[in-house]
Amino acid sequence: MMSDGQESIPMDVSPVVCVCSDPAEKLADVLVSEIARQEHDFHLAVSGGKTPEALFKLLALKYGDLSLWERVYLYQVDERCVPPDHEASNWRMIHETFLAKVPLIRAFRMEVEREDAPERYEQLLRQYVPDGGFGVPRLDCVLLGMGADGHTASLFPGAAACQENIRLVLRTDSPDRGIPRVTMTFPVLENAAKRRFLVVGQDKADTLQRVFNGESFPVQRLAKISEWYVDLAASRLLPRQQGIS
User: Fold this and answer.
1) pTM surpassing 0.85?
2) Which of 127, 172, 190, 236 has the most other CB atoms within 10 Å of its CB?
3) What is 38-226's CATH number?
4) Residue ranges of domains in the chain
């Protein structure tokens, strides 16, 4: 798809890839339009990290005063095992950039300080999110990112959590013995109605090309069933087809 200077990348698979100068703004517009069209509650899961900060700030600034947020239930895709006010906390970033400015949203923090945090969060998902079949909750939308190493959520290359097909939320280690994480697993991410990736920066270009070429990364499991919002730098190694509207 292409408009206002955007480009569409042809692929032999099903992903929708939107390349534009400001993919965060495009994604914000698409997300709010979808929430507005849906008359019932909207269940949204969001990732942390640096990339989505621009998206959350845009949502708050451009759309924060809309009443539709009162129908939104917000969940964390993943979290570092740090206190919620820690500088590395995903919750802190999400709260400061978005939730504090849009108080109508009902948001659920991953209480990673609890030993049973994964079990409690899975129970919470099953309690609030409608079942989408096979006993797995069906989120309306999951907002995801991709690391330069091909991870998404906190599902890192080589981690046992990438092979989990039953539990919906797990505690997992970070690469290089970093801060442990709690993360949603592929069963709940795959079962969502929509998965939307926001990918920016030239450091992601090589990995993005390799993912779309079918190389094995954790994010590859979701690549063909997701929408991708990508900036020009991250897309520089991808083939383009001009003139598509």
Assistant:
1) yes
2) 172
3) 3.40.50.1360
4) 38-226
